[in-house]
DNA sequence: GATAAAGCTTCCCCTCATGGGAAGGTCAAG
DNA sequence: CTTGACCTTCCCATGAGGGGAAGCTTTATC
């Protein structure tokens, strides 16, 4: 029953910037908002929930493409939770892979940093390790 | 003494694509390559080492901006390893932060996924958790 | 009621690191 | 000599936004 909000108010309430709200509408992730006579967008409770949904999904690291699928499922009364879970599991796999990659970098870089004295001398283990072996012989 | 290589050969040897080699030159990360009379770029041993250096740094997750600093230090005989280490430590901090963020997402999403039955029913704990509480009362 | 400030609209350009592809010149093998 | 592989530059696209200009509308202040 509350009166619809302008885009700025909706942004403040949902934590999604006005810029992004327009963008989500443009790419079809959100239905086109209602408009006042003068063209201002208006947002009701349902739209606010969709914006909040998108915000939460972004917080969980879902891509906009995944979110688009999730929002469709959310709006679909005939959805199967299997489909939702499949998207979540895929995203969990992506997250695990990214973590593994970052761990790899962290391990390698920590090792190099430990070997670097970090003083005023020019000698540096980090820089030394940065040239692939097969290029060392091709020296100047 | 080896004869200089074309950009494609340099790319194959260093693992940096020809496209990226041109780009690195364009943004000033690499000195302009020598050219044949007909305009083909040529790469000698030193350039190959720089390309390998960039490749390794990318593998460690450094941004191009950080790599630009690292390459400058690498070329500078008067560098202090302190400066190199500072860049590495900063990058390690960035990595830790990203890992923490991904761990947070992973924890939250695993919890939600565990609560979702993942069957043919429409009821889904993941979707339910996606609407921020303060928007639940603003329902349709 | 007038005016100023804030908010809205669309439109265009920027990021970062990289890939795709077109149009056209060059080189090497058959 | 032709063919195909390679090179050149130039423009466009990605994802997930941000910045800002020009111009209109609404709200607040006097």
- What is the name of the CATH class of the largest domain in chain A? Mainly Alpha
- Mean pLDDT of chain A, rounded to whole units? 94
Given as residue ranges, the uncertain stretches of chain A (5+ residues, pLDDT < 50) are: none
Major interchain interface with per-chain residue totals = A-B, 67 and 67 residues
Q: Return the CATH architecture of the largest domain in chain A.
A: Orthogonal Bundle
* Strand proportion of chain A: under 5%
Number of strands of chain A: 2
**Multimerization state:** homodimer
Helix percent of chain A reads: 55-70%
Measured on Cα atoms, how large is the radius of gyration of chain A? 24 Å
- Give the domain tally of chain A: 2
| Biggest sheet architecture of chain A | 2 strands, antiparallel
Q: Please state the structural category of chain A.
A: mainly alpha
Order of helices and strands of chain A: HHEEHHHH
Strand order of the largest sheet of chain A: 1-2
Task: Give the CA-CA distance, first to last residue of chain A.
Answer: 76 Å
Quick overview of this protein structure:
Two copies of one chain form a homodimer. Chain A contains six helices and two strands; from the N terminus they run H-H-E-E-H-H-H-H.
């Amino acid at each position: 029953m509350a009166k619809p909000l302008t885009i700025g108010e909706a942004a403040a309430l949902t934590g999604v910037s006005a810029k992004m709200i327009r963008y989500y509408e443009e790419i079809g992730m959100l239905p086109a908002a209602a408009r006042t006579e003068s063209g201002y967008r208006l947002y009701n409770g349902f739209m606010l929930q969709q914006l909040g949904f998108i915000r939460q999904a972004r917080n969980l690291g879902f891509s906009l493409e995944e979110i688009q699928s999730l929002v469709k499922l959310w709006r679909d009364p005939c959805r199967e939770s299997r489909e939702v879970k499949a998207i979540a599991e895929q995203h969990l796999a992506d997250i695990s892979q990214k973590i593994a990659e970052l761990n790899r970098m962290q391990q390698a870089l920590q090792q190099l940093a430990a070997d670097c004295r970090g003083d005023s001398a020019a000698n540096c283990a980090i820089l030394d390790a940065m040239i692939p072996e097969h290029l060392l012989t091709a020296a100047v």
